[in-house]
Design goal:
binds magnesium ion, binds ligand C2E, eight-stranded mixed beta barrel, 9 strands, alpha/beta
């Protein structure tokens, strides 16, 4: 009896697994097509200087405009692309698109692009980035590449070597999702990052969990001592903004600042924001 039901459970899981594998295969095939069919779009989310709210840059976040499923979020296809190697092609496409878009902006704002672990381990990555900068005419200092610490685990020496070569080009390197990995501190020790992005899982718990508040404060202190600007991601409330400002966090990113949006939503948005920042300044001067 037990054996019977055991086999039933096995059959059930086997079916589930086959289903998952089939789904992944379909996704991989469709994704390959999506790159050539230009179904991918880059959304941009603003980053604001904490001190005055002025927009100082944007992060490029890829979306898949699937003909049937609609807008697919990156967490549903980036892991698949990473697994089957498609990420190199996809990542190159995002990099090119983001740099070309940023080069066309009327203000020299910074553009942040996410790099996957596989990309960081490609020997030709610095050459590619160099080529894209020249082709798009974007100044290297305006490009910021975001990596997570897992990118250093595949081939540590190669990844580190690539980071050094990228930095030599004048590109900035940010550590993304800080605090969520297994060895965030040793990663921080191994390379002179230009920015630390404290993960939203900590930011969302500011004032909700004492421990999270303490951790955020400690990371900000760490950044200060190492002279690395810290960005808070996932900022959603005024209370979080006030806290982060008070703790002299450098930049803020999150729905409270602005949601990711398509390129044509940007120019009006940044102008409005810049106007608001200017007005705030006038107000402060008038008061003071
Ligand atoms: P990430 O680089 O840490 O990007 C931040 C994510 O947080 C984005 O999710 C953004 O939409 C979301 N977010 C921003 N503000 C808030 C907020 O206030 N509240 C909440 N709950 N979420 C917020 P998204 O766009 O879904 O991207 C998820 C992840 O996918 C990214 O995390 C990044 O790791 C990856 N990704 C996105 N685009 C690319 C890409 O072009 N290449 C690679 N390799 N990875 C990418
Ligand atoms: Mg990022
Ligand atoms: Mg992040
Ligand atoms: Mg994150």
């Amino acid at each position: 009896r037990a054996k019977e039901s055991g086999r039933g459970v096995y059959r059930f899981f086997k079916r589930e697994m086959d289903e998952t594998i089939r789904e992944r295969r379909t996704l991989a095939r469709e994704l390959r097509q999506a790159i050539t069919d230009e179904e991918l779009v880059v959304f941009y989310q603003p980053l604001a200087r904490a001190a005055d709210g002025e927009v100082c840059g944007f992060e490029a976040l890829v979306r898949w405009k699937h003909p049937v499923r609609g807008m697919v979020p990156p967490l549903e296809f980036i892991p698949v692309a990473e697994e089957n190697g498609l990420i190199t092609q996809l990542g190159e496409w995002v990099l090119r698109r983001a740099c070309a878009d940023a080069a066309s902006w009327d203000r020299p704002l910074r553009i942040a692009v996410n790099l996957s672990p596989l990309q960081l381990n490609q020997p030709n990555l610095p050459t590619l980035v160099h080529e894209v900068l020249i082709a798009t005419g974007l100044s290297p200092s305006r490009l910021e590449l975001e990596i997570t610490e897992s990118a250093l685990f595949k081939d540590y020496q190669r990844a580190l070597d690539n980071l050094r070569r990228l930095k030599a080009l004048g590109v900035r390197i940010a550590m993304d999702d800080f605090g969520t990995g297994f060895s965030s501190l040793s990663t921080l020790q191994s390379f002179p990052f230009d920015k630390i992005k404290i993960d939203k899982s900590f930011v969302e718990n500011i004032h909700r969990h004492d421990r999270a508040t303490v951790i955020v404060r400690a990371v900000l202190g760490l950044g200060r001592s190492l002279e690395i600007p810290v960005v808070a991601e996932g900022v959603e409330t005024q209370e979080q903004i006030d806290f982060l400002r008070g703790e002299s966090c450098a930049e803020l990113q999150g729905y409270a600042i602005g949601r990711p949006g398509p390129i044509d939503s940007l120019s009006a948005w940044t102008l409005a924001r810049a106007a608001a920042a200017a007005a705030a300044e006038v107000e402060t001067k008038a008061r003071g």
